[in-house]
From TrEMBL:
The lineage of its organism: Bacteria, Bacillati, Actinomycetota, Actinomycetes, Kitasatosporales. This is Uncharacterized protein.
Amino acid sequence: MTGIVVFFFVAAALFVALGLADQRKLYWRFAARRYRDPEANEPSDSAYAWQRVLIFIAAAVMAFQGFKALDFADDNSWSAGELGQAVEQAASALEEEPHIDDEYSDYSDLIEQEVEDAGEDMGPGYAVNVEPADSRDDYEITAEGTDAAYCMSVSQKESDEGGFTVPGVGDQQGTYVPEYDLSATTAEGAC
């Protein structure tokens, strides 16, 4: 991506340099030899002016494309600050409502979804990676585009709101499913 950005800005600089050069000298240096009578075929002053305007328009288009490529590159990668902000927001979001206990007490998918939601305008969701750390309650969060890593510790306790009962089939009694309140803390660095 860097090569594309550099190409657009170098092309813009070359067009600006070409636009600032004396157009008459450029004609006599590069184009006049094609004609039997170069003086009779020399462009008028207004033609040189239009040529210069078109060259500056081309420079502006190249610069615009360079900035759009920079914006695209920024939208498709994470910075350390963006990832940190998304992790903090995800930790707050985890604490807002009760959750059903995961069968393996692994909240990595839930954390990944919350980080993606929190960082929706900051970086691509597909670039977020959440892995359980050595400790059962710790999760390491990383993202493409940055070397930064964050450690989120998640603990759970049974919710004061209780849970819910899944109705049974026929004469069978329903199943009670407890909900848990999560508490999440974050720290910069790997777990």
